[in-house]
Amino acid sequence: MSGKPRLTYFNGRGRMESIRWLLAAAGVEFEEVYLETKEQYHKLIRDGFLLFQQVPLVEIDGMKMVQTRAIMSYIAGKYNLYGKDLKERALIDMYVEGISDLMHMILLFPFSSPDAKEKDLESIKERATNRYFPVFEKVLKQHGQDFLVGNKFSWADVQLMEAILAVEEKVPAVLSRFPQLQVFKTKMSNMPTIKKFLQPGSARKPPPDAHYVETVLKVFNQ
């Protein structure tokens, strides 16, 4: 096995995509193993790889890590994306938790019933424009810096960039009322590691399609 982190998940975004974003932003190459069958999933459980019988699974530094938040905290700390002190870490945690609440809605959207799609999309738009994005617009405006915490690139910036692009895929004009976030998005897009991740052929996954949904349901529910 190489020294690269090894990611085990479905061949799609889901809960692993934020981990891919964070590793890519840190300039870390990684390998991926894709779950496609229920048998693969149960073998991971039998072999003791999944502490709580859940994926994502990330093998890094001799550890088999599960629980998305724990994985990302470790990566952020390891690659100096977690602030310079406890106060900065607390701010990063607050921002990440807020963004995660929005991302959870986006994560569940592909699994919505056809009848609920329109309502769920409206909920994403409403939460993004009235609850979450105004917070980050205000933070960036008040301190007049390029990044959310300590004027240094952090996990919070990566998470916010992922969320902006994910919401824009569904609501293209969502940033029209947020000039600070427009500037932030442009700056983030031009950071070398993120720019590379946004290029075709990178490890970034496309929006979930019917095949992804079918595979997830087959592995977990069959």
UniProtKB/TrEMBL annotation:
| Superkingdom assignment | Eukaryota
Q: What class of enzyme is it?
A: transferase
Q: Name one GO biological process term.
A: xenobiotic metabolic process
User: Key word Protease present in the record?
Assistant: no
The record's section on InterPro entries has: Glutathione-S-Trfase_C-like, Glutathione-S-Trfase_C_sf, Glutathione_S-Trfase, Glutathione_S-Trfase_N, GST_alpha, GST_C, GST_superfamily, Thioredoxin-like_sf
Q: Which UniProt keywords apply?
A: Transferase
Q: What is its EC number?
A: 2.5.1.18
**Which interval of the chain is the signal sequence?**
none
PANTHER family on file: GLUTATHIONE S-TRANSFERASE, GLUTATHIONE S-TRANSFERASE A4
Descriptive protein name? glutathione transferase
What's the name of its gene? Answer: Gsta3_1
